[in-house]
Specification:
The chain contains 27 helices and no strands. The protein is mostly helical. The longest helix is centred in the N-terminal third of the chain and has 43 residues. This is INSC protein.
């Protein structure tokens, strides 16, 4: 499950309430403090948190239980029976607390859920009693024979727990989708869509549940009704999250979602925020990392309209975030069809992207530059692209991208910088088959920079992919302009086989003199 990664003290502070509740429940044997069914008290309890908060509480409790079960298995393997028993008691308390907490904010549980709750509670009690008996036994042979039974009981507890959580989350997804479909109130619908988005952020498994319950169908219904235009941005953001899984893609295909997205992108009456979120969905469903591509057939039918709208969004973007979403969608589209690159060329996209890079407020992060250079790299396979790059002073930009460095030290940003360096070198290598581009690159001192990246691991953040791309670009430029290299560089970086030069550079020790 997706949880915020924080330092241990902050995590302890967050979990403190759950842990103290657990101890209270242990003492009270999971009985409520008051036996009176006071409706006002129930109302106060249920209104303390929103649906989203309640789900977060449930997921945190579930994460704790899951972690404890894993630790029990580890302690059991080491025959640490005292720890096994104490942790079993704790799991028992957490399970009861979780069921009680959930019952305070749920509107009603199904018979199947009641049965699973009873099975889980009974099996947890049996598990606790079992480990207590093991604790009282000193005979090693008896403990050895009991260990397999304890393992079996632990497996059953984990199985019941998993089934219950699955059922609870499915019911919550159903409730939220029912609210969206049946409510005529914009406020309730907005709240339900927001809660659905939060649920989808918890990981791929939750997205699968939402998709299986028809979430994609329900959300596209909103996007097809003008009266709900104010909900479009949040709804599209939720769709982008759900469509990271195959089940979401299947649903998108069934409701002709790509046509709907194309309509939204090409409708100039929509806000920039709506266009940006539609671009985010396009970026998600065209991701080259996805292994399922059955939706692409219908995408190709609408590709020209979509690409045209995305280029316009890049050109008119009022912020870096909008440009990033639009350019990411374009970058992904260029991976799976060369026709997209031809369309981009016709739309003067190279000039538009190069012009955007001169606006530091728009192309303001390595992530945005990564998208731009990805598009240029994929377009550089076209012969006509070289003249466009020259006209837009693109070689200068590619040279600058070879110096891309992370300013924060953030791992994700550092990885983006590596991709920028790699793809700019790849683009230079491809474009340098044109003598005019090669000449411009040599005049801008690209060769010394490529040599530096090859010879200095820190310059390329120890990236092998950057090294290979730089060696390829250097060899292409050396073939066009051999006078730009010293003999030692030629002998080590150009003359040998690429693999030999690669091994030489990866084994090279930097001089700190």
């Amino acid at each position: 499950m997706h949880l915020i990664q924080v330092d241990s003290v902050q995590r302890w502070m967050e979990d403190l309430k759950l842990m103290t509740d657990c101890e209270c429940m242990c003492i009270l044997q999971s009985k409520p403090i008051s036996i009176e069914k006071d409706e006002q008290n129930e109302l106060i309890l249920s209104s303390q948190y929103s649906t989203c908060d309640n789900l977060q509480l449930l997921l945190k409790r579930a994460w704790i239980i899951s972690t404890e079960l894993t630790r029990i298995a580890q302690k059991l393997e080491k025959n640490r029976w005292q720890r096994v028993h104490s942790m079993t008691v704790r799991v028992n308390c957490h399970v009861r607390s979780m069921i009680n907490e959930y019952s305070t904010f749920t509107r009603g549980s199904s018979e199947q859920m009641h049965q699973l709750e009873k099975l889980l509670v009974d099996k947890c009690s049996e598990f606790t009693a079992f480990t207590e008996r093991c604790l009282q036994t000193e005979d090693e042979e008896i403990l050895k024979s009991m260990k397999s039974c304890v393992n079996e009981t632990l497996t059953t507890v984990a199985q019941y727990f998993g089934q219950l959580i699955e059922l609870v989350l499915t019911q919550e997804a159903q409730n939220l989708l029912r609210q969206i479909e049946l409510s005529g109130s914009l406020y309730i619908m907005e709240s339900a869509v927001s809660s659905l988005f939060s649920l989808a952020q918890e990981g791929a498994h939750l997205c699968r549940i939402i998709a299986k319950e028809g979430g994609v169908v329900v959300l596209f219904k909103i996007c097809r009704q003008d009266c709900f235009r104010c909900l479009y941005p949040q709804t599209l953001r939720t769709l982008a999250s759900i469509c990271c899984v195959e089940e979401g893609m299947h649903q998108l295909e069934k409701v002709d979602g790509i046509l709907c997205l194309a309509d939204i992108l090409t409708d100039t009456s929509h806000s920039e925020a709506t266009h940006a979120e539609a671009a985010a969905v396009i970026a998600q469903i065209t991701s080259p990392h996805l292994t399922f591509t059955q939706h692409l057939s219908s995408f190709l039918e609408n590709m020209e309209e979509i690409v045209t709208a995305l280029v316009k969004l890049c050109q008119e973007a009022s912020s870096g975030e909008v440009f990033l979403l639009a350019s990411a969608a374009l970058a992904n589209i260029t991976f799976f069809d060369t026709m997209a690159c031809e369309i981009l060329l016709q739309l003067n996209a190279v000039q538009i992207l190069l012009a955007a890079c001169s606006h530091k407020r728009i192309v303001d992060t390595p992530y945005s530059r990564d998208q731009v250079v990805t598009i240029l790299a994929n377009m550089s396979v076209l012969d006509q692209c070289a003249s466009e790059i020259i006209q837009g002073n693109g070689v200068q930009l590619l040279m600058e991208m070879l110096f891309e460095k992370s300013s924060s030290g953030n791992p994700a940003e550092a990885a983006a910088c590596e991709r920028v360096q790699q793809k700019s070198a790849v683009t230079l290598a491809r474009l340098s088959r044109d003598p005019e581009v090669a000449d411009a690159a040599v005049k801008l001192s690209c060769i010394p920079r490529l040599i530096k990246l090859c010879r200095s691991p820190t310059e390329r953040n120890n990236s092998d992919s950057v090294l290979v791309a730089c060696l390829a670009a250097l060899r292409r430029l050396a073939a066009m302009s051999p006078d730009g290299l010293e003999d030692s560089d030629f002998q080590q970086l150009v003359k040998p086989r690429l693999v030999d030069s690669f091994l030489l550079c990866t084994n090279m020790e930097e001089s700190f003199v």
